[in-house]
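cron nightly-structures :: item 1 of 1
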Amino acid sequence: MLGNSPSNIHQVTNYYNTQVNFRKSQIHGSMFRVTKIVQEILKEVEILEPRFISTLIETNGRFEGVIVHSPHEFEVVLFLNQMGVFNFVDDGSIPGCAVLKLSDGRKRSMSLWVEFITASGYLSARKMRSRFQTLVGQAIEKPEFRDYCKLVPESSDVRLRVEGEFIVQITCAFKCNGIWPRSAAHWPNSSIPWPNHAMASDVKQEGFDLTSKDTIPSGILQNKQANSMEGDAWAMCFSAAENIILTGNRRKALSILKCLRDKHLEFPGTPITAYILKTLVLFECEKHSNDYEWEDVCIADRLIGVLLQLVSCLQCHRCSHYFLPQLDLLRGKPVQLLDEGARKAWRLVRTLMLNSRALETL
C-alpha cells in the first residue's frame, strides 16, 4: 500500500522525475508546434475582422492563454477588448454563467460589438462565437492551412483538428480582473488556514474570464427560452485563479494524477478530464489544509484521496465546480460512461492501495 514509507516516497519521486517529466516534455513540444499554427490562423482572422485582435503572443518560448486538456487536446483563449459598456450580471440563474448587459443609458452604437447585442441589450456569446467560427473557417481555407487544419463540426465551439492528431479549441473571452462573482462569494472558507489571506487576495484580484462556450450538453432538453438565455450567456473560467493556489507539491500531485489519467483513465468519451482532477485536488487541499500534509512523505496519501473522491463523484454522477458549487462538471454525461469511468478509477486506486510497488509498473 502506498503511504509514507521511504520506499514509497522514492516511488513517487521517481515516477514524477521519469513519467511526469517525460509527459510534460512531449506535451510542450506538441503544444508549441500546434500553437504556432493557431497563431498564424489568428493573424488571418484579424485581417478579415480587425476586432478579433490576436492575443496569442510568444514570450520566452511560452504562450499566455493556452490550456492543456490532454496530450492531444489544447485550448487557446483569445482575449477581446471593449467590455466597458456592459454590466456584469451574475444572478445564479444559469449555473457557471453570467450575462453582459448594456449599461443604463448606453446605446448599442457605443459598443465595439454592436451586431452581437440582443434586442434585450445582452451581448450574445452565441452570436459572437458563430461569427468567429465563420471567420476561422474562412482563414483555414487558405492554401497554407487547408491540408492539415479542419473545423470539427460537432458543436458551435470553434474546434480545429490539426495535422489529423490534435484538437485545438479557440475560445473568445473577456478578462475580468479585480472582479469576484456573487456565485463564488462563499470562497474562501474562513474556518481553514488554506489558502492564506494573501493568496486568497491574489486570487480575487486575478478574477476570472468570461468565455464564449457551448455550455449546453447534447441530450439536455430545455425549453426554447432557457436554451436561448444559456446560449447568450458567458461561461465563467477560473483557470488563472486556480493556478495561483495550486503551488509546490499540490501542483506536483496534480501533475502525477494527470499522467495516471492519460495512461489508465483515457477511453472513448471518458468523462474524466484533467480539469475534474484539478477540481478534486482543490477540494483535497481544503480537506488537508496544512502545508505539512502536502510534503513528499504525504503525497501518496493525497493521490489516493483524490482518486477516491473521483470514484465517489462518478458513482454519484455529480462533480461540483470548486468555486461555483452549483455547477455540475458532469452534467449531461452519459450514465454508462460515468459508470465505466468509476470502474476504471476504482481499479487504479485499488492497485495503488494494495500494491506496495504500484508506481513502478503503472
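cron nightly-structures :: done
The radius of gyration is 21 Å.
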